[in-house]
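On to our target:
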Amino acid sequence: MTAVFDGLTWLRYAFKDGQTIYKQDYGITEIGVGIKAAAVEAICWSKNYQYLIEMQREMRQFLRDRNYLVFSIHGNLLRSVAETIEESARE
């Protein structure tokens, strides 16, 4: 599951399909081998920003709908975790 973004994490890693991966791995698998490191870094920052905006949109929609399935990635997992926490709180 993707780590929660802190002030620096989004600069250090790449985020794709609910996974946190090293930027270098993202560069090789998603961009190509012959791309310079500075370009990979810039692309990762841009993609991470887009990913963050999408997560923000999903979180806002969740606040309106209270439906975990608004999360395109890990919605069922988040619902399961929330249910487990609620059950533990009742005990």
